[in-house]
Design brief:
The chain has helices spanning about 1-35, 40-45, 45-60, 195-215, 225-255, 265-280, 280-295, 295-320, 325-335, 340-375, 380-390, 395-425, and strands at about 60-65, 75, 95, 100-105, 110, 115-120, 125-130, 135-140, 150, 155-160, 165-170, 170-180. It folds into three domains: about 60-180, no CATH class; about 185-215, no CATH class; about 225-425, MetI-like (MetI-like fold, Orthogonal Bundle). The chain is built from twelve helices and twelve strands. The strands form two sheets. It has a six-stranded antiparallel sheet with strand order 2-1-12-11-10-9. Strands 3-4-5-6-7-8 form a six-stranded antiparallel sheet, with no helix packed on it. The model has no long low-confidence stretch (mean pLDDT about 85). With about 425 residues, it is an alpha+beta fold.
Length: about 425
């Protein structure tokens, strides 16, 4: 009878736990839903901005700008001086003259007149604006203004699928989206801009390969040379920080290992140092060190080194405590000195663990160096942060993100290959 009672009580506890665990998880998710206001996310989200950012990732804008004070017209890619067309020139869809006609496609036509700016919108009608000292006087077709028109006394903005027109007292600006990353290879002032691939190859074989490469590498819009150096800085930060931490942590690991350091106080101190170093996040070390060493790759490398020294010290000390003492005794029997015992009896046993962990952290730190570089002012992370902060050239943001992904993939492949070569001795990759 007592056995049956105990069995029934045990069954009741198990049934209670089977219901209690899902109930606690459900309560936790309800708390998250309420605390983070998940329900209000749809109201806060701006889908128009999201669509704009996505379109900016794979397209570019050509700006046609008129100074309403003197009537001068300027045409440039992304509105930048580095992408400006020469005076009096522009793309085929911009007809410069006394009246500048801008064909946005699908019968959308904007005209910069002497005093007026007009936009002929198919299916809606002609919009006439006249900027002046009193503001922007605008005349719209009869009826209520649609959502894609935003009009006030000093500004009129018309956004359609073909492009956008903004008119203020001092400036009128049209921009049109086009597919691709314009000026990615050569800028407008390059003699190779717009040249067909076949002709470009012909020039390369005729002794102009160096000039072509120089024009591409020194591209003022995309700065390929600066980007390549930033990628190198990022990899360098990860490499110096990771392997520097491994070299510092290995001798300290012997101090924290029970079978190599009999003094409990020394072991305790070494382990608390490891806890402190890895307990402070790498980003915090970055901020602290930047005050001491200033911004730059050195600060990022030191931040990674400090954090990884704590992690490696803990892992290496645990690996040292699990070494086979028989191999050490065999080396000792030959009359080997302490350093020789460590070199031939201990290091070969922990080398697979050491290399595996170091190479794994190298992969991880390549990604971390991107964020650290954004704080310390070095590497591809800085360029990415600058491009995001401008909120203008999102195709550059996409370019940097693609390069970061490729960099991480290459480091992962390199690390895996090196791990096989050093640990398994697998030259064939099988």
């Amino acid at each position: 009878m007592p056995l049956q009672i105990r069995s029934a009580a045990h069954f009741q506890r198990k049934r209670l736990m089977s219901f209690a665990a899902p109930a606690m998880i459900l309560v936790y998710f309800i708390y998250i839903f309420v605390s983070f206001d998940i329900g209000g996310l749809a109201e806060r989200a701006n889908l128009d901005n999201a669509r704009t950012l996505v379109s900016d990732a794979y397209s570019y804008k050509t700006h046609v700008t008129r100074d309403n004070r003197d009537g001068s017209v300027d045409v440039s890619i992304e509105g930048e001086r580095k992408g400006r067309y020469a005076e009096g020139t522009g793309p085929a869809w911009v007809a410069l003259g006394t009246d500048t006609l801008i064909d946005l496609g699908d019968d959308h036509v904007v005209t910069f007149g002497e005093t007026q700016v007009t936009y002929d919108v198919p299916g809606y009608g002609m919009i006439v604006t006249e900027p002046g000292r009193s503001g922007v006087n605008a005349v719209f077709p009869a009826g209520e203004l649609p959502d894609w028109i935003n009009a006030s006394k000093n500004r009129v903005t018309i956004s359609t699928d073909a492009g956008r027109l903004t008119v203020t007292r001092n400036r009128s600006e049209v921009f049109r989206y086009s597919m691709g990353w314009e000026l990615f290879f050569f800028t407008l002032d390059s003699p190779y801009h717009g040249m067909e691939f076949g002709r470009l190859v012909g020039h390369a074989f005729n002794g102009e390969a160096g000039a072509i490469w120089s024009e591409f590498w020194a591209n003022k819009m995309w700065r390929h040379g600066d980007v390549a150096w930033a990628l190198f800085e990022t990899v360098l930060m990860a490499f110096l920080g990771t392997f520097g931490a491994a070299m510092v942590a290995l001798p300290l690991g012997f101090l924290a290992a029970k079978n190599f350091t009999p003094l409990g106080g020394l072991r305790f101190a070494a382990r608390r140092v490891f806890d402190f170093l890895r307990g402070v996040d790498g980003l915090i070390w970055t901020i602290v060190l930047s005050r001491a060493f200033g911004p730059g790759p050195l600060t990022g490398s030191l931040a990674i080194l400090l954090t990884d020294t704590g992690s490696f010290g803990k892992m290496f000390s645990e690996a040292l405590e699990n070494v086979d003492s028989k191999q050490i005794e065999g080396i000792t029997s030959t009359g080997a000195k302490p350093l020789q015992r460590y070199r031939f009896g201990v290091i070969p046993q922990i080398t697979p663990v050491l290399l595996s962990q170091v190479l794994y952290y190298l992969e991880s730190n390549t990604r971390s160096a991107t964020i650290i570089g954004a704080i310390t002012g070095g590497g591809i992370g800085l360029l990415l942060t600058q491009a995001i902060n401008t909120q203008k050239d999102w195709e550059e943001v996409t370019y940097y993100i693609v390069l970061i992904i490729l960099m991480v993939m290459m480091m992962d492949t390199f690390s895996g290959w090196l791990r096989r070569k050093l640990i398994k001795g697998d030259e064939g990759g099988h």
